[in-house]
Amino acid sequence: MTLLLFLEQVLNGLQSGVMLFLTAAGLTLVFGVMGLINLAHGSLYMIGAFAAAAIAAATGSFTLAIIAALTAAAAAGALVEMVVIRRLYTRDHLDQVLATFALILIFSEATRWVFGSFPLYLDIPDALSGSVRLPGGIEYPRYRLALIAVGLTLAAGLFFLISRTRLGIQIRAGESDREMIAALGVNISKLYTLVFALGAALAGFAGALVGAIQSVQVGMGEPVLILAFVVIVIGGIGSIKGALVGAVLVGLTDTLGGVLLPEALRLFMAPSDAAAVGSALASMLIYLLMAVVLIWRPHGLYGMRA
Amino acid sequence: MISEKLLNGALIAGLLLVVLHAHLTDAPFTITLATKVAILAVAGVGLNIALGLGGLVSLGHAAFFGIGGYAMGILASHAQSYVPLMQSPVLIEGTKSMPVIWLVALLASALAALLIGALSLRTSGVYFIMITLAFAQMFYYFAISWPAYGGEDGLSIYVRNGFPGLNTLDPIQYFLVCFGVLVLALLVSFRLRTSPFGLALNAARQSTARVQAIGQNPFRLRLTAFVISGAITGLAGALFADLNRFVSPTMFSWQTSGEIMVFVILGGVGRVMGPLAGAALFILLEHLLGGVSDYWHIYLGALLLGVVLFARGGLVGVLTEGRSGDD
């Protein structure tokens, strides 16, 4: 394995990490502020991707597709919050798990009903297709590089939002004492809807961006949701910083493990065995990473006691 | 409203009557459906020990269900191809004998539950839910990428495994085998509730600090419950694989975890017969609604949402109006 190939894989890992962050950030924010575990977050990711694919097919514009993804996911998020989720804040986690599991069933089947079971495809815009030559001579796809940039920019924006703006202060206050900020005149239920819609928009945005490299299909959200859970367990619930660190760690471990592990096993195994065993073990790596973090820090790298 | 005891008796009698009627009118498909109900109920009984008694919201019981399934698939496929499982240091051959397969399924899933439980019980609440779900997903991906036993395509077993003295290929006889296991699992679950262990576990669910104060170790109580729970669900996995004569990574999927939980909830958490009521309702809905619409999951989702939001206590709870519940 050459150094160039290795660096390329590091970039791939970073790219999948920042996209994972967008999904995990909403999830951790919703848990931190409302104390709600939302399994249907993956459905919002899927809704974003489908909205983008449908609008791109109708108009041919990638920009419009992205706007559609953001709008559709945020609207679906706000609607679901007002109709269902709102009733779950005071319930225990079991009720939240079941109700949001029911939402997955409804969203997935409704999407299958409207769009059918076949995957849709979303094309990369012309301006971002092709590849660029990076310093050191790596040819890297322009689109993936753009994803890294967009993801990091959004992460920075989110940090700014949480730590510097009025909304961010309200969100952090909501995390620590809900009654107190309600008493201070903040409209809690509006704040909750807003936070939920924000998380949904981030997930839908990630779904649309990733949908252009993978296919857009029913059930695409749940593997991402479970990965986002791993990210949150590693990073610590409620921590945006933890979500970013966890997401990049998971992205890098997953990508590099898939490439390096078979290579390493080839040193003392037949190549075909090494490929099989390596890929099987690589699929377990991120969960082993999670297990190690759990043993070392049961509440995640940046988490407080839940 | 009726008493829970009467309802429990009616459920068992109802299942037997349906099968008897199907047997007399020669409707093997109905018997197969009833067998599925019995097996899924066993899986639910397993989860209910962790969920209802221990308060452990495990969203990863597909891991144990799948391990039980693969225990059957691996042993039977080696017996089928006459290739030993292991030659050195000891010769281990495959088997087509159900009791042996069950024992392996129980042990393997208990071991997995011990490992997963020891790690995930270090945390609680929402962490526990996410971690159990993640570990089940690990098994799912492992089963997909491990080519030796079919990978993504799964494993087919041509002839159902044998039980001494019975012809398991006869639907009614296999139903009786599964029904017997269900009755045993229900008895275990019932005995556990009233045993000193079950009482301590239930107490730990309600107040960890108090249980600690009287000298019990909540972690050990929960881990024991999780292992028993995983082992029973693993046994159900072996039975399920034998019913279909097929195992695939789907048994490990998060949907399977969710569905096992749905059986328990539809029936009523922490109620001995809840999983049977829930599994029966689930299969009935799948059969009835599946005939009406290809998109029957929408109705299932709406029903589940309704139960969670408005009918806490599930089917058994609604019919007995909350009598003799846990809380």
Automatic annotation (TrEMBL), chain A:
Pfam families: BPD_transp_2. The keyword Cytoplasm does not apply. Belongs to the binding-protein-dependent transport system permease family. LivHM subfamily. The chain crosses the membrane at residues 20-37, 44-60, 66-85, 97-122, 142-162, 191-213, 225-253, 274-296. GO terms for molecular function: transmembrane transporter activity. The keyword Aminoacyl-tRNA synthetase does not apply. InterPro entries: ABC_transp_permease, BCAA_transport_permease. It is found in: Cell membrane. This is Branched-chain amino acid ABC transporter permease. One of its GO terms (biological process) is amino acid transport. It is a multi-pass membrane protein. One of its GO terms (cellular component) is plasma membrane. Keywords: Amino-acid transport, Cell membrane, Membrane, Transmembrane, Transmembrane helix, Transport. CDD domains: TM_PBP1_LivH_like.
TrEMBL record, chain B:
One of its GO terms (cellular component) is plasma membrane. The chain crosses the membrane at residues 38-57, 62-80, 100-119, 126-149, 172-190, 219-240, 260-285, 297-319. It comes from the Bacteria. Pfam families: BPD_transp_2. The keyword Nucleotide-binding does not apply. Keywords: Cell membrane, Membrane, Transmembrane, Transmembrane helix. It is a multi-pass membrane protein. One of its GO terms (molecular function) is branched-chain amino acid transmembrane transporter activity. InterPro entries: ABC_transp_permease, LivM-like. It is found in: Cell membrane. This is Branched-chain amino acid ABC transporter permease. It comes from Litoreibacter roseus.
